[in-house]
Amino acid sequence: MQFKELIGNEVLKGKLASMVDEGRVPHALMLIEDDGWGGVALAIALAQYMSCPHKEGGDSCGVCPECNKFQKLIHPDMHFVFPVNVTSKSGSEKKPVSDTFLPVWREMLLKNPYFTEEILNRELGIEDKVGNISVAEAKEILSKTNMRSYEGGNKYIIIYLPERMSQDAANKLLKMVEEPFAGTYFLLVTHSPEKVINTIRSRCLQVHMLPVETSMIQDGVSVYFPIISELLSNCISKNLSAMLDQNEEIVNLGRERQKEFCRYSTSFLRKIWLTKHGLAHIANINQEESQTINTLAKAIPEPFFEKAFNHFEGARGAVESNANAKMVFCNLTNLLFVSI
Ligand SMILES: [Zn+2]
Q1: Helix (H, G, I), strand (E, B) or coil at 83
Q2: Where does 3-208 sit in CATH, by number?
């Protein structure tokens, strides 16, 4: 994930990039976020930026082989740790660790970088249990940090919700977090820093994230909200010609704003999706958007969301690689129409 793909936290992204540029990234960094703010995605973007050999303008290039592996979440030197428990999805393993659930985790994260704890638990099948980061997990982490990095570069251990780590697991990890091998970085993403075991917390540089920035929301709301809400309404009522009529408006935005429009649209879809799942309170919904979002949440069928996310992402990528805007958005319209 590139920094620019993530919505909001512009100031923080700039600060993180300068830390990298100036060689000041601490070996243990703790991002403090709230549910749904995209902390894990930001940690990945940071790791990708650190490892990309073609950084430009405070962001990774997004196209080199390194970036490619980060974007698919398959970089062999990026390890994920998150609270787990025994479930039907953990198969026969008695003490599942994060790696047991890696395919589920990747799929969820790629689908929705702003996932919430509740969404994760549902995907893991542990709604009725508490996930935790166990001693078995700590042993896994230690063996990974003791191995050479596969690609000869940095190694990243991204720990989601370190507040779920048991005392024993924390004791095991402490020395490694305190004095990791050169090139090993612990990137922690927490919702409750005060609940993270003190010995671990005190070794981390703490960085506070913000909810999606107000300015971005307002800009998006005034310019793009009318377009996307009308586009979705026309889509629901199967009015293809009205949808195609809207294309001109989008094409006239110009390249940069077209990309922003796509980004706003995916965040707008995310808000609708969260609302549909009773999570409107964490969706950062603006007053102006509220009523439309409620209406759309009722009208849009579940399978549409993932497809639409992908279509908007595809359109943004195409605009980025200088494809003809008219064709890109005509194609987008058609894809949305057949996906509803
Ligand atoms: Zn790159």
Answers
A1: coil
A2: 3.40.50.300
List the chain domain ranges: 3-208, 214-339
Beta strands 155-160 and 78-81 are parallel
Cα-to-centroid distance, 50 and ligand 1 (Å): 9
Give tens-digit pLDDT for 55-101.
998 999 999 999 999 999 999 999 999 999 987 677 766 789 999 99
Q: How far apart are CA 218 and CA 237, in angstroms?
A: 28
Residue 196 CA to ligand 1 center (angstroms) comes to: 33
Q: How confident is the model at residue 212 (pLDDT cuts 50, 70, 90)?
A: low
Q: Which CATH code fits 214-339?
A: 1.20.272.10
Q: What percentage of the chain reaches a pLDDT higher than 70? A: 96
Strands of 78-81's sheet in order across: 78-81, 155-160, 184-190, 28-32, 205-208
Find, among 67, 33, 34, the residue nearest to 50 by Cα: 67
Q: Is 270's pLDDT higher than 70?
A: yes
pTM of structure: 0.67
Instruction: Tell me if 25 sits within 8 A of 19, measured CB to CB.
Output: yes
- Residue type for position 212: V
Give the Å distance between the CA of 66 and the centre of ligand 1: 6
Average pLDDT of 186-197?
96
